[in-house]
TrEMBL record, chains A, B:
Pathway: Catecholamine biosynthesis; dopamine biosynthesis; dopamine from L-tyrosine: step 2/2. Its EC number is 4.1.1.28. Gene3D superfamilies: Aspartate Aminotransferase, domain 1, dopa decarboxylase, N-terminal domain, Type I PLP-dependent aspartate aminotransferase-like (Major domain). This is Aromatic-L-amino-acid decarboxylase. It comes from Sander lucioperca (Pike-perch). Keywords: Catecholamine biosynthesis, Decarboxylase, Lyase, Pyridoxal phosphate. GO terms for biological process: amino acid metabolic process; carboxylic acid metabolic process; catecholamine biosynthetic process; serotonin biosynthetic process. It is an enzyme of class 4 (lyase). The modification N6-(pyridoxal phosphate)lysine is found at K255.
Length: 420, 420
């Protein structure tokens, strides 16, 4: 395929993508396939000679689409949102074309530098303390990771490295292994200090945890994977109070800030803590401006999205989703058969039928089977709870109303059954 | 931006990408910017209201492109290749549109299933032992990771988990901490058993290491990050002999198999070893067919590339690159001022001027400064060596000849200087 054919096929693909997203709500949100469905639909080996491109596209419809859970359907209310937007898709095309691997400044200066500045932009949107902003203070700064788990792992390694050095500074006779065997990480069931847990979007009190960590010289990491995006709105920013005690902080714009996966943003108070933990300099990577990490040009997505929406556009988007969650909450509260199981703060509503776990499991089973809307459950204090998360960019009031009609219809049917 | 505007902007972007790649060799391969160049070119904060899209594209040319190291220029010979191809770019557009997060089967069945089958296709292309092929044997199989480092980390955790369980099975009184403190990982300077090291593309003798690992019950992991792609050619496959002793194996199609970053493929002999190490089942992820890992729909890229090139097309691509390396090797060998520093097996030529490290450092400095070609060095037995890696998809004989003319011209100039 040469540039000329790519031009033609690329334009067809743009059209395919636009059609897919424009008409996505007409597809069943959850696929009707059994595990192993795909293997029998395609050959067992790669072709020796090239296939026809048109056949590949036909196979996307025949093989792939029937097995896709449509995360961007306005009837998708499962897990947490996976962000997407047209500006991010455009930026991703450019990112693919440049195709640099940004593991050092020299490997692609624009990639390293735009990332630092975009993390500053975003940090300022969240009104992070100055020491997290690279362009202001100079000691801290932000970096993109793939996932919140990766950010947490990186933080853990940096914290460990820093603790070892601190102990060694005053006890040079101690071996690294000896120190390591004494280190302790304090976590709850949800791991570290969390703003917006996955199960129910609960918030830890970091203004209480923070001073203890600082006093005891404990590295404090705060994970706000989902909820972090909302802190760009002044009315939600108080939930981030206490951030000034943190050594590091991360959240996922790829969840709720219209930037495609992967884009998990992380800030550290002292860049040197991160760089120190990962320093490794074979000559083929050596450069006076080396930093670590292997990455695509992911900051392009941030740049396109921030500029095409503007801060106000992004704020409006967050507020719309929270508003839709409140709308759903009202519908649930108005129906005496149901109860709300956790305070609705962001775009997640945890609810259940008053009654046994078995009854709620049955309701979810029927919802999943119907494939009209898609939800997943969680467990809160031993109770089986349904999670209704506002996810898609195009979800609107009518989808919420339709989803609730659907849930109550299935509830009605279940409660009619003799052995429910 | 609605679907209609995306159609228009998407087609413009396809055109931009095609133009960029078609004319890439006219750009200096290495950028002429100083660290920090970008910050002053853009605002210090995100705009409150949306910017104009045309301004963003103008800024790509004004702000981004001057700071890009052009990895896909045919004059880029640094590091190792970063794969790209038009079919992969098209697949990536589709991947972005579907935008699923495949952390379990239910989260997107097509994503999980195509990945397993594509890893089988690729495993068969490499003629991997049957126990690595999911569709044949049933106990082993492949999975996509982001990088070889990630694959190695995952393997290390799986191996550790397995070792702990084995010891605990016969010593139930031992605590996990006690066992962990006794575990040993054997590595060389390059970490694990490696086929094609980064510095010089050297090969470990796995037919010697393998039986020792098997006999001593040591998990054997083999990393063939760069060279692995070449094993689809029968003439290079003998370098993989001994793979039957390995518990796990990985290489990066995103380096040399025309599939965009990220796509690091990894196979394990026993899937349960991986799944067991990462099992963690909160209710919101629970599903009878759960596996682990958070991922984009990366297997689409593999599917498009394998089908659009066919196995023969991919083999021809590898052979072309190796041929170009041999061509460069001949040019170096024909010039008595130079020496070849490591056997040229794949697409990498390690060479240097006979003389001091200082002289070679000076030569590389001039090469980098000229920005006509881009190379990085390595250190072999204390000697400063230049690495010439065939990288871009469009690199051809004329680029090799031109690169050599350029190197010898700079050499001539240096050797003329009184204090060289």
């Amino acid at each position: 395929m040469d540039a000329e054919e790519f031009r033609r096929r690329g334009m067809e693909m743009v059209d395919y993508v636009a059609n897919y997203l424009e008409n996505i709500e007409q597809r069943p949100v959850y696929p009707d396939v059994e595990p192993g469905y795909l293997r029998s639909l395609i050959p067992t080996e790669a072709p020796l000679e090239p296939d026809n491109y048109d056949d590949i596209i036909k196979d996307v419809d025949r093989v792939i689409m029937p097995g896709v859970t449509h995360w961007h359907s306005p009837y998708f209310f499962a897990y947490f949102p996976a962000a997407t937007s047209y500006p991010a898709l455009l930026a991703d095309m450019l990112c693919g074309a440049i195709g640099c691997i940004g593991f050092s400044w020299a490997a692609s200066p624009a990639c390293t530098e735009l990332e630092t500045v975009m993390l500053d932009w975003l940090g300022k949107m969240l009104n992070l303390p100055e020491h997290f902003i690279a362009g202001t203070h100079g000691h801290g700064g932000g970096v993109i990771q793939s996932t919140a788990s990766e950010a947490t792992l990186v933080t853990l390694l940096a914290a460990r490295c820093k603790a070892v050095r601190r102990v060694q500074a005053s006890n040079p006779e101690k071996s690294e292994a000896e120190i390591l065997s004494k280190l302790v990480a304090y976590t709850s069931e949800q791991f570290c200090a969390t703003l917006g847990t996955t199960a129910s979007c609960a918030f830890d009190r970091i203004t209480e945890l923070g001073p203890i960590c600082n006093k005891e010289n404990i590295w404090m990491h705060i994970d706000a994977a989902y909820a972090g995006s909302a802190f760009i709105c002044p009315e939600f920013r108080p939930l981030l109070n206490g951030i000034e005690f943190a050594d590091s902080f991360n959240f996922n714009p790829h969840k709720w800030l219209l930037i495609n996966f992967d884009c998990s943003t992380m800030w550290v108070k002292k860049r040197e803590d991160l760089i120190g933990a990962f320093k490794m300099e074979p000559l083929y990577l050596k450069h006076e401006n080396q930093e670590s990490g292997k990455k695509r040009f992911r900051s392009l997505k941030m740049w396109f999205v921030f500029r095409m929406y503007g801060i106000q556009g992004l704020q409006a988007y967050i507020r719309k989703h929270v508003g839709l969650a409140k709308e759903f909450e009202s519908l649930v509260r108005a129906d005496k058969r149901f109860e709300i199981c956790a305070e609705v703060i962001m775009g997640l509503v945890c609810f259940r039928l008053k009654g046994s776990n078995r009854l709620n499991e049955l309701l979810l089973k029927r919802i999943t089977k119907s494939r009209e809307i898609h939800l997943v459950p969680c467990q809160l204090s031993g109770r089986f709870v349904l999670r209704f998360a506002i996810c898609a960019r195009t979800t609107d009031s009518r989808h919420i109303q339709q989803a609730w009609r659907h849930i109550t219809q299935l509830t009605f049917e279940i409660l009619q059954e003799p052995n429910h």
